[in-house]
Amino acid sequence: QRRCSDSLFVFFCHLERKNVRLVDGNSRCAGRVEVLHRGQWGTVCGNFWDLVDAAVVCRELDCGEPVDALTDNHFGQGSGPVWMSALCIGSESTLKNCGSSGWSINVCTHNSNAGVICSGHKPSRLAAGPHLCSGRLEILHDQTWMSVCDAVFDQQDAEVVCRELDCGAPVQVLGAAAFGKGDTEMWTQEIQCRGNESHISFCSVSSSHKHNCSSDINVVICPGRGSIRLVGSGGDCAGRLEVFHSGSWGTVCDDSWDIKDAHVVCRQLQCGVALSNQQVPAWFGPGSGPIWLDEVECEGNETSLWSCSSPGWGKHDCQHKEDVGVVCSGKE
Predict the structure, then answer these.
(1) In the chain, how long is the greatest CA-to-CA distance?
(2) pLDDT-derived band of residue 13, with 50, 70 and 90 as boundaries?
(3) Neighbours of 118 (CB within 10 A)
(4) Class of the 124-221 domain?
(5) CA distance 202 to 322
(6) What pLDDT, on a 0 to 100 scale, did the predictor assign at position 24?
(7) Tell me: the pLDDT tens digits for 25-68?
(8) pLDDT of 106 over the 50 cut
(9) Which of 1, 104, 229, 283 has minimal CB crowding within 10 Å?
(10) At 1, is the pLDDT very low, low, confident or very high (cuts 50, 70, 90)?
(11) Residues 124, 138: contact at Cβ < 8 Å?
(12) Nearest Cα to 106, choosing from 89, 87, 82, 77?
C-alpha cells in the first residue's frame, strides 16, 4: 500500500496573462499601448496607427470599441524598446497577429508612441445626484475615484464632462457640496480643457497644487432628460413641469408659456411632440418648493429647455397656482 506522507504532488499552473496593456490613461481601457515580448514591456510605433489598429487592442482587452487612436504621446513617452509597428486589418484577435516589419524593426522613437482610448473607458462620473446627468464630479485616477475640487474646475471643463456622459451641455457648475462631500479622496490638480474635447482624458492637467481644496467639492449639472420632469399624471410624458436647479426640484410659471415651449420639453424628454400646454390653474396640482423659471421663451427647435431665454433662475412674480403643465404625444 502506497504511503502518501512521503511525497507531495506539486502543480505548476499557467496563469494566462495579456500580452497587451494600456498605460498612464487612468484606467485599463485608455493609455499608451505596450506589448510584452521576450519578458519585457515595450511600446508600439505610432506611424500609420489608426482606428483599425486601435479596434484590435480594445477588443483584446474587452474594452469595447475604439474612441480614438492617438499618435502624439498623449499618454507620455514610455520607456524600453519600441517593439513593433502594427498594420492590422481589424479582425485580428490580438495585436501580435497584425502585420509588422518585425520586432524592433522600425524607424520610431518614443516621440511617436501609439495610444488608444476605448469606449469602455469612462474617466468621469457624476455621483449622488438625482439622475445620471447631475451630481458631485468624480474622476478616475489610478483605478480610484476622486472628488474634484471646485477651485480647479470651470465651465469649459464641465462642457467636456457633460459631452462625455452623453448629457448635453452643462446647465450649472456649483462650487459647493450640494450633493454631499462623499468619502473619496480629493483631486487637486487643475484640469485645463479647451471645451471641445470629447473626453476629459484629452484635456491637459496641471501639476500645480496652489489651490486650497480642503472643503469645496465641485458639482456639475448637465441637462440630460433627468434635469426636467413631468409629474402628477401617473406617466412620464404628461404632468406639471418641474426642473432641477441648485440641488432641488422646482416649478415653472405659465407666464408667456406657449406650445413652442412645450414642444422643447417633449423633445428633451423624448416624449414626441406637445399635444397641449396646460395653463389651467392646478391642472396637475400645484407644486411646492421654488418657482425656478418664469417668462420662458423658446423658438421651438431647441433640443433643451436650457437653450431657451428667461429672466433667470428664481426671478418671477408667480404663485404655485400658475405652475405650467405639459402633455406630450408619448415616448418615441
Answers:
(1) 98
(2) very low
(3) 25
(4) alpha beta
(5) 46
(6) 86
(7) 877 888 899 999 888 999 998 888 899 999 999 988 888 888 88
(8) yes
(9) 1
(10) very low
(11) yes
(12) 82
Position 7 confidence tier, pLDDT thresholds 50, 70, 90: very low
Q: pLDDT tens digits, residue range 285-296?
A: 889 889 999 999
Residue 201 has pLDDT above 50, yes or no: yes
Helix %, strand %, coil % of the chain (to 5)? 15, 30, 55
Q: Which residues pair with 291 in a beta bridge?
A: 251
Q: In this structure, what C-alpha cell is assigned to residue 77?
A: 513617452
- 221 with 292: CB under 8 angstroms? no
Residue 4 scores a pLDDT above 70: no
> What residue spans define the domains of the chain?
20-118, 124-221, 228-328
**Residues whose CB is less than 8 angstroms from the CB of residue 147 and which lie 6 or more positions away in sequence, other chains included:** 136, 137, 138, 181, 182, 184, 185, 186, 187, 217, 218
CA-CA-CA-CA dihedral for 247, 166, 151, 118, to nearest 10: 140
Are 272 and 327 a contacting pair, CB within 8 Å? no
Write down how long the chain is: 332
Q: Any idea which fold 20-118 has?
A: Mac-2 Binding Protein (3.10.250)
How far apart are alpha carbons 206 and 189 in whole angstroms? 6
- Per the prediction, the chain carries an average pLDDT of 78
Amino acid found at 155: Q
Cα–Cα distance list, 165 to 25, 106, 119 (Å)? 18, 38, 11
Q: What DSSP state is assigned to residue 323?
A: B
Question: Selecting from 3.10.250.10, 3.30.230.10, 3.40.50.1110, 3.40.630.10, what CATH number does the domain 228-328 have?
Answer: 3.10.250.10
